[in-house]
Write a structure and sequence with these properties.
Length: 351
């Protein structure tokens, strides 16, 4: 089986799931993980792990990502004279009594509660080992051929064109088709750091896991609760970036030991209620040419580990804390949106 690369990045697992693999560590979530997840269900209680998708609100936290906009193509109910917004079937046939409503929504797929797909982050890398760098993604898939670049933004959407720039490979639909259901584990960082803006190192995380008796096994999806979701919700769609960007804990993306641990455990996905799972410590350890978001680079680009961001974890984390538990069944398929590099998600936890 020919690989797409002659040289793979140090610390990567390219090829481990096959030359054509587009699922990465999510390959580890299969029937056995579903059974393990189901074994954690005893109350039958469910928690919705999604923020309302119009949160955090505004663009203060990410200038390119806007809140969803809905447009009604049809609105049933009282006809206020705007014919195109209201369609009563009786207009076609007086015997019909039904009225219809239809929407179109413009959604930045990574605005709110989301999955980062494997085509979300690539790197400039010499995968052909010929002295030239190309833009490459997980498992050696290339920009240009496999991941089609976006045209220069014109500010206009062509509804009549279906030639969208898209991820021909590594699109989020692969994850949707696989199904995302299995055992998940909560790591309660908020319990230890409150609202302190702290980049958690490998050594600190190991202490927390030991203290809280949290065990992570191969194939588990791992959630890190930081408390940022509560802060976001409390700001009621008027986010104060200064506060949100300087509050709550997150993983120290520049800690190599932590990154290696993530891939060595065989966890299937990494999830948090913060923006990027990782936090950059005030002074980075990196030198030379390096990734701006090292945990994204390690997980998405090198090891095919999907990232879940801006999830709502507070209610579940507090319930688990009270019950002295950390494991639950997680069901979190993305949209089956072919060619998308990420997706909104409405995850459900069952305990
Ligand atoms: C970036 O593009 C930086 O985003 P995210 O943290 O959502 O992966």
């Amino acid at each position: 089986m020919a690989m797409r690369w002659k040289k793979r990045p140090d610390g990567s697992n390219w090829g481990a799931f096959g030359a054509d693999d587009q699922l990465g560590a999510m390959n580890l979530v299969g029937p056995e993980q579903v059974r393990k997840g189901l074994a954690e269900v005893c109350h039958g209680r469910t928690f919705c792990l999604s923020l309302p998708l119009d949160h955090p609100g505004g663009t203060a936290l990410h200038p390119r990502r806007h809140p969803p906009r809905r447009f009604a193509t049809l609105r049933g109910g009282k006809n206020e004279g705007a014919q195109c917004f209201c369609h009563a079937a009786s207009r076609d046939n007086p015997l019909y009594c039904d009225v219809f409503s239809d929407d179109v929504a413009l959604i930045h797929t990574q605005y709110s509660t989301q999955w980062d797909g494997l085509a979300h982050v690539g790197a400039e890398f010499d995968a052909d080992d010929d002295g030239t760098e190309e833009i490459v993604f997980y498992n050696g898939f290339r920009a240009g051929t496999d991941i089609k670049p976006a045209p220069a933004a014109t500010g206009q959407i062509r509804w009549d064109s279906y030639e969208d720039p898209r991820a021909e490979a590594l699109g989020i639909e692969n994850l949707a088709r696989h199904g995302v259901q299995g055992r998940a584990v909560m790591v309660d960082l908020h319990r230890h750091y409150g609202q302190d803006n702290h980049a958690v190192t490998f050594a600190e995380l190991m202490n927390i896991l030991k203290q809280d008796r949290v065990v992570i096994e191969r194939g588990d999806m791992v959630c890190f609760y930081t408390g940022l979701d509560t802060l976001i919700l409390g700001m009621n769609k008027q986010p104060v970036a200064e506060i949100l960007l300087n509050s709550c804990a997150g993983l120290d993306g520049s800690d190599e030991q932590l990154l290696n641990w993530i891939s060595e455990t065989g966890m299937a996905a990494l999830i948090s209620d913060n923006f990027a799972v990782e936090l950059m410590p005030k002074s980075s350890r990196a030198s030379g040419r390096h990734a701006m978001l090292p945990l994204h680079h390690h997980c998405l680009f090198k090891n095919g580990i999907h990232l879940g961001e801006l999830w709502r974890l507070d209610e579940l984390a507090l319930w688990l804390r009270t019950e002295g538990r950390s494991r639950f069944l997680l069901t979190a398929p993305p949209l089956a949106l072919p060619g998308a590099v990420g997706s909104p998600v409405s995850p459900i936890a069952t305990v």
